[in-house]
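so my prof wants the structure for this chain in the tokens format not the other one, which i didnt know existed until like an hour ago. anyway here's the sequence
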Amino acid sequence: MPDQLPADDLATPLHKARILVIDDEAEIRESLATLLELEGYNVDLAANATEGLRKAEAGSYDLILLDLMMPDRSGMEVLKDFRERDTETPIFMITAYGSVEVAVDALKSGANDYFSKPWDNEKLLIEIDRMIASSRLARENIQLKRALKQQYSFPNIIGKSERMLRILDLVTQVAPSRATILITGETGTGKELIAKAIHAHSARSNQLFVPVNSGSVPSDLMESALFGHIKGAFTSAIAAQKGYFEIANRGTIFFDEIGTISPETQAKLLRVIQEREFMPVGSTETIKVDVRIIAATNADLKRLVEEGRFREDLYYRLNVINLVLPPLRERKEDTPRLVDFFFTKYSRENEKFLDDEQKSRLHFEPDAMQLLMDYNWPGNVRELENAVERAVVLASDATVSVDVLPDSILQAGGIRIRRDESGTLPADASLFEIVADFERRKIIETLETVNWSQTEAAEKLSIPLSTLNQKIKRLNIDVRRKGAT
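here's what i got, hopefully its the right format
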């Protein structure tokens, strides 16, 4: 079953919904507030457009009642501002100047309904109730689809953050098309995984997905690699050979790090995109192909175009649909799920710590998980995966401590123990701080007895030297000065 949906979003009764009323007339605001509150709605009021926009940005509303005529800005301008930021929240326009033309303009600009002053209370309440119910049902369907998609459709793409869910929505939309796609994002964000997901959900899924690492193929060999060659095309061409495009015919070709290809190859790639044909090296005959092209880069292609290092016409041909993958530091809420996924993956590979359902029994101690949550992950998901694989390999118990984390994470998240002016722990010190303080003092005491020899200290403490080194770094023990910081 898909993960449970947020109870506070979908299970809230309609008459507990929040409504924002924006009107410059105090009598109108007060009468609407009284009417709606008697029906059980939570109502916020704004006396002008500026206040209304500020409240809408700061809060979450189920419906907005917006006056058409206000002193600081017109309601129509405010409506357009709302719709640029939020296309989903229902908005009802209210005005004393009712006309068919005004109503049509409001609806074209994104209003959901239109009421003239004085309005019919019963009709207004019926329409508000209907619109909120309809809006919530639409959101519920979106969340259900997302939950199902997360559970069944993208098993290797882990993430429930809003940004990743929007990416998966786009993947679902664009996969069935023939459109060329450009995936951008930092190294390690999972660009090839997204490309494979697009291929897997397209009509080409039963054909080949052919990855091309543009940065690893020498420029003088790239043309032959992409388009193939005929026998005798060059000295070492002792036999004809197919290129990636011909191999990928009716399937998908994926260019990783597209920004690294040479200007000459860029020109020939542009021709393939435009004409759907190419000419093998040494040949005078063209070969027609039906290939879906997906490209990825961690570079700023727009900047490369401005610098004259990447063809502008090719850039626009590739950038029909752009998927921007967020770095892990901008979706840290996905970290625990990624950790669980990689724990199971590498527990299976190493055949250790598996339960009866072949899921990993491993889990990080709270302080270790906190270090992972605080770390900024310059290598993104790939770096996290490496850290979890290391933890699986080094783990001796199902509960994984900070000792198995890489030095880079330990150094970035060195433990700071609070002390008062007398140098003792404060009264509100946490158990974590108490344990860390005891461990730190014990290590310093041991180091002092062996004249700061870490090898001898490790033997006295009955722990591996590598573990002692990690603890020294994590607990901020300054061994260079032969004392504690």
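also thought this was worth mentioning. The chain has four domains: 7-139, 162-326, 330-412, 431-484.
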